[in-house]
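Late entry, evening session. Most of the bench is empty. Finally got around to the prediction I had been postponing all week. Sequence below, unchanged from the version circulated by S.P.
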Amino acid sequence: MKSFLKTVFAVMVGLFITGICSIVFVTCAMVGAAASSQGSGSTVATKPNDVLILKINGPVTEIPSSMPFSVDMLSGFSLNEDLSLRGYLNAIAIAAQDPNIMGIYLNTDGMTAAPASYEALRNALTDFRETTGKWVIAYNDNFSLGQYFVASAANELYVNTIGAVTFDGMSSTLLYPKRLLDKLDIEMQVFRVGNFKSAVEPYMIEHISDANRLQTETYLRNIWSQMTADIAASRNIPVERLDSLANEAVSYMQPVELGKTGLVDGQVYKSDVEKRLMECAGQDDELHGITAKDLVTNYETYFAQDLPNKVAVIYAVGEIASENTSHGEDGIYYDDLIKDIRDVTDDDEVQAVVLRVNSPGGSGFASEQIWKALCDLKAKKPLVVSMGDYAASGGYYISCMANYIFAEPTTLTGSIGVFGVVPNFGGLATGRLGVNFEEVKTHQFSQINTMRSMLPAEKQKLQHGVESFYGLFVTRCAEGRNVDQSNILNVGGGRVWTGSDAIRLGLVDELGGIKQAVAKAADMALLAEGSYSCVNYPMPLSPMEQVLEMMGEGEKDLTLRIADHVLGSTPADRSTIRFINNLQHADHIQARMLEGVIY
């Protein structure tokens, strides 16, 4: 027995030591990788007759990951190798200026993004062609609609000999879990202003409302119209023909039918495309080029001169939160954002600011605090907003006071409305599980209890709070846009608009991306082209900060990762799960839209 215990103890000690050594080894590897990724000796030079190999094969995020590694308790250890939208746009801009680079080879197999990000990439490629005279050649094994939309900007567009182009129009998927909640005896007590404020609709009714269907159909048709107009111009195919193709009962535009559509220039093997690239670049023997990731390591060489005048670009990405709920890189914790805003406000070298907003909104309280910090900034320096995929509800709240607002035609914005949600788990806890909750309080409003239905007076008080905040929201928008409140009320009510509609309604000033926003901010600060540099906020983490952040990543958003890895949920499911998961941390009053998934 004594020998057995000694053996067990020895094994336990051995496992402990092995674990400690593994942690030390991985941590050292992380520090080394993080340090090398920021080292000055890591740049890769281009060579004459190079091709930019622009492969975008995963989700396109707004900003780069602050960490070179991901550590996930479910999926393990992985490298973060994909660039962000900012990185891809930088790579295209560098390629335009580099005389060694003859053109771009674009591959978008596996790329996913929201319509405004697709638009930004496509516009950058179009601008690359038109301003430099260089070429873009695109090839995919298969094309989804969004991938094809980006690739249609190319001079030449190819698909595999047995590949397909999905060209079936657009749809948006929303999850309505009301019946499930009813079966679990969970009541979502909802308070809102605006018939179009659909973020909470799935918890009130079983099917989409007429108002939500109307606004969703409207912005989908607007996005489709923008995409087909761009494709028609590039491919010389009438819009009417593109609409007809989307309605044809041809499965995924298979090879025989695809050749008749004019959507592609040829159906070839990848090796044939490589030969074509070598021919266009004037190369012999084998294709050589530089990847987008390697190219952007030279970013400082081209763009980041240390000039005394600067335009700051502050990124506000994700849901707006009033407390740090470990959203990771997909959330706006208002204290952190306000710190960046104040740093920029007090920096004498920064002459103008661009706020890049990609947010569906969130906490009303946090949105108001950010609004105040931005008003203080605007009092000292020009402030221009650049809207990404979303700048809706709270995302519009923190945008409306800017001197000038840019949006992509396919940006989803507006959603000027407010809601509050108080879940009631009493039916599940008491009715099904037999757990009673007894209250003792001094006044009738001492506690809003999530284990019972709210009393009529409590509901009236919360509805009053929601309506009061909506009045403040409308006031902020009217003052920011310098219009009467009636103008905002006419386009408010929680309705979502595309950027192209927002121009007509006066919610934004001009269609364009972050490049145009930076140029406008510099112009407002009377900065001549070439006399300023750009600086991005938030600042990159140091190598040690990256390691500490990564060590905490394993505990973040466990519910969402279980949905991803175990349940295999769709993006629509994850959007809804994220919404429910965040309710436990959320303020009672919210200004946000529920993100549908657009196909």
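Two things to note before I forget:
The longest helix spans residues 2-37.
Residues 148 and 169 are 12 Å apart (CA to CA).
Will write this up properly tomorrow.
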